[in-house]
């Protein structure tokens, strides 16, 4: 045999897969993802602890009066007023969910299946406006109904998106008109 053929016959092909290294990488990646998830969860709990001075959320009165408006859609979260990235997580306000809003003379009732319901008394309403984003949710210009209200010593912005975005303008007008009427009546007293 020629020397070239002998060299070719003696070589064996390299092992294609190093299973030990591959399993090590997969386990390492899984541990890294678990660590990041745990850190995010701890950060959420820490933020809730920092906001622990937020009073209990009011509940709707037994007889809130006749319904002015109702809306079905999504609750996207609450933030410190004017700071659209400073999410409030205490008292369940950070939980995104479906929402049913009802506006009456008594105030704004927010019913959230799977999350804490809350009520904003009419005297605590400060402003309603259309905006494009709140706490990690960005929509088209005017795609979000933002209601500013006072709770304890804080002003809070809560963001809602109706299933029918055309309803937003009617809500802004109704809430702002209600605030103006309450302010005028309070000044006359």
From TrEMBL:
The chain crosses the membrane at residues 20-40. Residues 53-75 are annotated as: Disordered. InterPro entries: PH_bac. This is PH domain-containing protein. Residues 54-175 form the PH domain. It comes from the Bacteria. Keywords: Membrane, Transmembrane, Transmembrane helix.
């Amino acid at each position: 045999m020629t020397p070239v053929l002998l060299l070719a016959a003696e070589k064996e092909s390299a092992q294609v897969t190093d299973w030990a290294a591959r399993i090590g990488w997969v386990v390492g990646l899984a541990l890294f993802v678990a660590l990041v998830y745990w850190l995010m969860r701890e950060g959420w709990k820490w933020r809730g602890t920092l906001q622990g001075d937020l009073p209990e959320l009011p509940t709707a009165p037994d007889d809130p009066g006749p319904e002015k408006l109702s809306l079905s859609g999504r609750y996207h979260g609450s933030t410190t007023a004017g700071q659209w990235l400073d999410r409030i997580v205490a008292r369940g306000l950070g939980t995104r969910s479906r929402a049913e809003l009802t506006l009456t003379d008594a105030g704004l009732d927010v019913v959230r299946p799977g999350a804490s319901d809350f009520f904003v008394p009419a005297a605590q309403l400060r402003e309603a406006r259309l905006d494009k984003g709140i706490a990690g949710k960005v929509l088209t210009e005017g795609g979000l109904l933002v209601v500013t209200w006072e709770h304890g010593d804080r002003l809070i912005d809560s963001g809602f998106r109706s299933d029918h975005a055309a309803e937003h303008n009617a809500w802004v007008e109704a809430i702002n008109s209600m605030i103006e009427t309450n302010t005028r009546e309070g000044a006359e007293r």
